[in-house]
Amino acid sequence: MNKEKLKVAIVGASGFTGSELARLLSDHPKVEIKMITSESHQGKPFSELHPQFFDRLDIPLVSAEEVSKEELDVIFLALPHGVSMDFVAKWKDSGAKIIDLSGDFRLSTKEVYEEWYNKKHSYPEGFATAVYGLPELFSEKIKPATLVANPGCYPTASILSLAPLFAKQLIKENSVIIDAKSGLTGAGIKASATTHFSNVNENFKAYGIAGHRHTIEIEEQLGGLAGGQTAVQFTPHLLPVDRGILVTAYAQVSGEMDQERLTEIYRDFYKDKPFVRLRNQAPGIKDVRGSHYCDVFPVWDKRTNRVIAISAIDNLLKGAASQAVHNMNLMFGLEDAEGLAQIPLKP
Amino acid sequence: MNKEKLKVAIVGASGFTGSELARLLSDHPKVEIKMITSESHQGKPFSELHPQFFDRLDIPLVSAEEVSKEELDVIFLALPHGVSMDFVAKWKDSGAKIIDLSGDFRLSTKEVYEEWYNKKHSYPEGFATAVYGLPELFSEKIKPATLVANPGCYPTASILSLAPLFAKQLIKENSVIIDAKSGLTGAGIKASATTHFSNVNENFKAYGIAGHRHTIEIEEQLGGLAGGQTAVQFTPHLLPVDRGILVTAYAQVSGEMDQERLTEIYRDFYKDKPFVRLRNQAPGIKDVRGSHYCDVFPVWDKRTNRVIAISAIDNLLKGAASQAVHNMNLMFGLEDAEGLAQIPLKP
Amino acid sequence: MNKEKLKVAIVGASGFTGSELARLLSDHPKVEIKMITSESHQGKPFSELHPQFFDRLDIPLVSAEEVSKEELDVIFLALPHGVSMDFVAKWKDSGAKIIDLSGDFRLSTKEVYEEWYNKKHSYPEGFATAVYGLPELFSEKIKPATLVANPGCYPTASILSLAPLFAKQLIKENSVIIDAKSGLTGAGIKASATTHFSNVNENFKAYGIAGHRHTIEIEEQLGGLAGGQTAVQFTPHLLPVDRGILVTAYAQVSGEMDQERLTEIYRDFYKDKPFVRLRNQAPGIKDVRGSHYCDVFPVWDKRTNRVIAISAIDNLLKGAASQAVHNMNLMFGLEDAEGLAQIPLKP
Amino acid sequence: MNKEKLKVAIVGASGFTGSELARLLSDHPKVEIKMITSESHQGKPFSELHPQFFDRLDIPLVSAEEVSKEELDVIFLALPHGVSMDFVAKWKDSGAKIIDLSGDFRLSTKEVYEEWYNKKHSYPEGFATAVYGLPELFSEKIKPATLVANPGCYPTASILSLAPLFAKQLIKENSVIIDAKSGLTGAGIKASATTHFSNVNENFKAYGIAGHRHTIEIEEQLGGLAGGQTAVQFTPHLLPVDRGILVTAYAQVSGEMDQERLTEIYRDFYKDKPFVRLRNQAPGIKDVRGSHYCDVFPVWDKRTNRVIAISAIDNLLKGAASQAVHNMNLMFGLEDAEGLAQIPLKP
């Protein structure tokens, strides 16, 4: 890696993911943001959409067509599912590496995608090259990748809560229940009844019961870790907070277990993963807010012979934008923590 | 029941439960509040502790010793666990019926109590006379009772989420996981790090993992419904809202099941229970806030062969104060809904 | 007043005001809701729009055209500004009394309306018959009225904070500053960037600086009390809460003043007004939430020779729906507090 | 300035200010945290008090007595009012520069302090050497200072809202009203009824009406800017959010004014102040959260002949910790923005 900065484009400026990418990349010492695109807001300063950037990032938004005209090192796609795939197809040979934050290349095959996303896939060839961008599991595959599928927010927290046990093939089949709770930013920036303050504030509810599409992403990754298939029960809920995912995962294990052994398994698995913090008490989502950390806390309940594993992340960061930056760091030989060392903001 | 109003005392004025009892009983057409007691605030107007009552309930607080001097129909004990038992012993022959909102008489025996509450019980004789005051299950026993143990907030929501299946003995042993989330008022009015705004707001965390004392209360009641014992995995979490409990319960069932049959089982079980609303979509806690309702929504997941049952209550009402009033109504031959017909306050 | 119930229609079901009217009128002992209208949701049960009413108010929504076909005592118009006026014109001779919750008839003349609302008025004749429905000031005019213009939420809190001083002509010209803060429901049920959770939660901002249309409503009423014109500086802000308005009003007074005299002036003015509570400490908006109360607290600052008067209301109730019900009670010879005696819901 | 890092101590670890100082200084490229003190938590890791620092700042807390034993460049006092003064006296000749975040040296004299803080001052000599640490006004005095009194949170936002007009002597006497609103962290980390979640959440109220001690701090600074004395009406309110202060300031001006001239005056005054952002729309507190910015927005209301000036800061940062770091940067010849370049965290 020479001294020159990486030239990056952020495609899709209007959402929370785009704005968090812009925030992290603005402060990243090895990056230069060459452009941010938005079709509907072309010409407006980026800070007009996101006033917190006033006087910091006032560059005018441009059309995605400008991407082809510039020599870039990385393209971040902060686009909705179903839109991203076309841009991946378009820019796959542009010389830039692509980090796609949508769900378009997270699953194993076109067939699985089309079943769970209920939508035709326009670039199925991408599945062969796409690498699932969860550095705690796949850093060696991510490094040489040209297309990284940045994991979903729920899957990131869910997979990291149980990965050490799956990797050791200790989980009993069909025993996994993942009860997940997310802050409202997970629902996106679009104004709707779902995101109306009065429907969220002082409220709490489940949604996507028995059918949320993150289920299959979790199943494929956890199953893969154990060398097979697995089924998980996944139920997301909407928290009246801006940021944060807390996962409470339940599982039965095969063989003998106690708290000491359980902690040891987690410590081993995460010993070289600087962003997973093995906690000795239940983490709250505010303990990781504004940071790239995933806090994990596994408990053994001898009364019920079950593991309860808690994990907490900032859904916009470890669950999206900072994970994408971590992937970029790996893909370009930078330090893991470059630009990602923020201490959580609390309170 | 003649035209005269029931004379009631509320023992314990300072907490949320005492204040909600006062609010409901003030507006109850068949009740006269004769006194509200507080040892530490004697002489102060009730509204000084709870300013929302200014100009509405300004009566001076008195010592609990005044209770013995008055002829009362009902005594509500809104006291901490471990304190209530002594007053029950003291007033058991006073002629007044006692509704105890603490946990002191909710369990089956002194032994179970002492194991889970880690505290000596001073009036074990009470267990024989105490009736568990969950009207949806025990209205016939509640009517003649002289001592009612008002259920815990989490147990109320948890039991009602799965009672129809336990009553039909359809639940597979050791398959039940209850992931519960409560508003902060469940933690009480005492100022502490736990209740400090900055630790709650924008935060969310689990607590009491694998050992919360409401576990045994749920197990005894659900087990009893099925005519035996049962073990449940119960994990409470703290929501950054004032009021509300949402329970997400998971269970495997024996025998054939589908959504239609599941709904039918719930509809049958709750058909004469005016305060359980069988919903056709996932309820939020705000749908029941300020009311006596318990909203229930059972889902069959054929992919995993599991029931996911959601229930929502206002923890201070159906989980405490209005349930106590409901019990009073039953004990004195009043209509179930007398004084309890509030439509939820939303938003 | 005979035993028969008042037959009422609520025109406009989808907003918060309509839903609060439905809640209050459902429980009002002298009222029968004959219909609730919605053009866009005709045929749907009311509870489908507002799930808290599930099992309580499931009547199908009808077109506003049904209003003419029924003999009604009262029509509540819960419609946007600019829409209401046409329905007032249409139903003015229907025999029903009209309570309009929009801003269409709150001001003195067509000219003033058109200047501040920037919109042509289609029924200017209405200004002559409309009575400004603030019972604390105009109960005698409201009783015989056939058209009542229900006050705005900010004006209700603002006027009541300073009315005693204006009525005594003690306010110095151009000295009044009203710094007002409202919960988000004041912005309505429509999904937009303004009402998106992530723009409201943990945020706070001013809006409508130096030009909000409630300014003129406040000026006309306070000026009228003093027998002349007045100018007030009015600045609204958006609070990250559902309900409540807090007004902090500042004014200089003519003549001698001290705290005792100030309190006395307020006590005199509000002595027969059951819903204004003169507090002896600063009220919070939660002290009145869910109730019809307006809490008022005037302070004399001798250091600066200024009055600081605080008032708190529930914007959806005293600021809208319960004020409308209060007006109905007056118009039909009912008790002021009929159906309006709710104790505030706190916490 | 050579390459060596500044050696700093943070005295007072338990509060929000101490924890934010630790966060900023941990990431500051020119600083080494030598110790953090706490009398009541000696020996515990800092991260035990503030779990967000887990794995990042786990150094054991030491007694304040350790401060004297180490050669330090800067001592930050994050202590309560009335406690700080003794440590200033003790360490004034230690060779370290002192930045005091309490109110003990913010005012002009012992007499003024004792009147407004209602407390005897033990080190009145300090007033002569202390410099008021508001860099936008006093950077030249701060640079050589050995004792800096870091401004209060409310005064920072209040002074910056009106400083340009006071500096030009354009403000009419006794016309200034500052209506200020602060997030709950301003009330500190101590558990009390005031900080209990249920008293803050969904609530809003004024406090300290007509007597808050920040009044005199604002008056001294604004008066000083205009070369004389001034009186301001200052009313603080408590917002149900963690962080942020929004000030809405009202004033009458002498001479001709219009929006263009007003904007120009502000632009001139703040043209070389990198952390004051002159906004063209009303800022919300979330636009500056997590950052060192003060956003300012002045409006001219020609109808009332009044200026309304809005300012927004993060009370824990520009209102406390980052302002202290800025002062340190100035005192040691570092760049203004060293360690302070965080883009606001939104949402």
The second-level CATH architecture of the largest domain in chain A is 2-Layer Sandwich
Give the terminus-to-terminus CA distance of chain A.
38 Å
Oligomer: homotetramer
Sheet having the most strands of chain A: 7 strands, mixed
| Fourth-tier CATH superfamily name of the largest domain in chain A | Dihydrodipicolinate Reductase, domain 2
Task: Flag low-confidence runs of chain A.
Answer: none
Q: In what range is the share of β-strand residues of chain A?
A: 15-25%
Question: What topology, given as strand order, has the largest sheet of chain A?
Answer: 8-9-7-10-13-12-11
> Remind me, CATH topology of the largest domain in chain A?
Dihydrodipicolinate Reductase, domain 2
What is the number of E strands of chain A?
A: 13
Radius of gyration of chain A, whole Å: 20 Å
Tally of structural domains of chain A = 2
Chain pair forming the biggest interface: A-B, 45 and 45 residues
SSE series of chain A: EHEHEHEHHEHEHEHEHEEHEEEH
Given the C-alpha coordinates, what overall shape of chain A results? globular
Helix content of chain A: 25-40%
Briefly note the structural class of the backbone of chain A.
alpha/beta
- Total DSSP helices of chain A: 11
CATH class of the largest domain in chain A: Alpha Beta
Mean pLDDT figure of chain A: 97
Sum up the structure in keywords.
homotetramer; 347 residues; Rossmann fold; Dihydrodipicolinate Reductase, domain 2; 2 domains; 7-stranded mixed β-sheet; 28% helix; 20% strand
Descriptive report:
Chains A, B, C, D: It is found in: Cytoplasm. Chains A, B, C, D: GO terms for molecular function: N-acetyl-gamma-glutamyl-phosphate reductase activity. Chains A, B, C, D: It catalyses: N-acetyl-L-glutamate 5-semialdehyde + phosphate + NADP(+) = N-acetyl-L-glutamyl 5-phosphate + NADPH + H(+). The structure is a homotetramer of 347-residue chains. Chain A is α/β, with parallel strands linked by helices and 347 residues long. Chain A folds into 2 domains: 6-150 and 320-331, Rossmann fold, CATH 3.40.50; 154-313, Dihydrodipicolinate Reductase, domain 2 (2-Layer Sandwich), CATH 3.30.360. Chain A has 11 helices and 13 strands. Chain A has helices spanning 16-26, 46-49, 84-91, 110-117, 126-129, 135-142, 153-167, 197-200, 214-225, 259-269, 321-331, and strands at 6-11, 31-37, 74-77, 97-100, 131-132, 147-149, 176-182, 205-206, 232-238, 245-251, 276-278, 294-301, 306-313. In chain A, the strands form 2 sheets. Chain A has a 7-stranded mixed β-sheet. In chain A, helix 1 (16-26) packs across helix 11 (321-331) and helix 7 (153-167) runs parallel beside helix 9 (214-225).
